[in-house]
Amino acid sequence: MESTTEKNIATFTHLSALTKYFIPFGNYIFPIILWTSKKDKSELVDESGKQILNFQLSLLLYSLILLVIAVPTFLVTLFKNTSFQSLNYNNDFEISNFNFEGNIGLLTLGFTCLLIFALLKISEFFLIIYASIKTSNGEKYKYPITIPFIK
Q: What is the pTM assigned to this prediction?
């Protein structure tokens, strides 16, 4: 049976991942601080710390993969039919012969990656809230689509 203090620390471990909206890398720093402070004394805090860190690292990996696909796709699509001689004397860049029909597959791939990225970020917020509610009730929560980096 976990004490109220252990439940609160485990809950704040999950909620501390939301500090990324205010402090860069706060979603890694604060969960690590809370987790390492009590991981030896509470099984719930230990499990919660591992889960939130694995979830954040998994989301980082997924986000990087999606951006590595989306950014080059948009750049290739944009510059595929554009010559670099279209710079005029005002240094304005003009795209005159862009063809949507020939690039619809690449544009769809790029927009699909951006859509998945947006859905990941929205679901991350709600999953963190849900996990913190479950943990505050003393239950262990396992995030979906998480790679177990820390065991």
A: 0.83
- Percent of the chain exceeding pLDDT 90 equals 58
> What sections of 40-141 are H helices per DSSP?
43-79, 100-136
What does the block give as tokens for 67?
Answer: 């951006």
Structural contact between residues 47 and 7, judged by C-beta atoms closer than 8 angstroms: no
Distance CA 56, CA 139 (A): 20
- 3-state class of 3 per DSSP? coil
What DSSP element (H or E) covers 14? helix 4-15
Three-class SS state of 57 = helix
Rounded distance between C-alpha atoms, residue 30 and residue 27, angstroms: 6
